[in-house]
Amino acid sequence: MTPVFNDNNLKGVDLYHGDQNLSYHDLAASGVKFVYIKASQGVSMIDSAFQDNYNRAKSVGILV
User: Residue 31 region, left (φ>0) first, then alpha (ψ -120 to 50), else beta?
Assistant: First the structure.
């Protein structure tokens, strides 16, 4: 099946620690409704920006 991309689709993005300089207000204004945020990798790496990314997304009403 070929994915269909149009204005009726729910918009979301995938974020990690390298995305700290994003404007979450701009994301929300562009129609982004949800984000996946990297929290860890394997058993020993914790993404140092997870909590900040989580808080910033929630502060503008983006689902995490």
Answer: left
Contact 34, 64 (CB under 8 A): yes
Paired sense of beta strands 32-37 and 11-15, if any:
parallel
SS3 category, 42: coil
What's the confidence (pLDDT) of residue 4?
63
Strand extents, DSSP E, 1-64: 11-15, 32-37, 40-41, 45-46
The vertex-25 CA angle with 28 and 57, nearest 5°, equals 75
Q: What is the pLDDT of residue 15?
A: 84
- Report residue 25 as tokens: 């207000």
pLDDT means over runs of 10, the chain (64 residues): 68 81 89 90 88 93 94
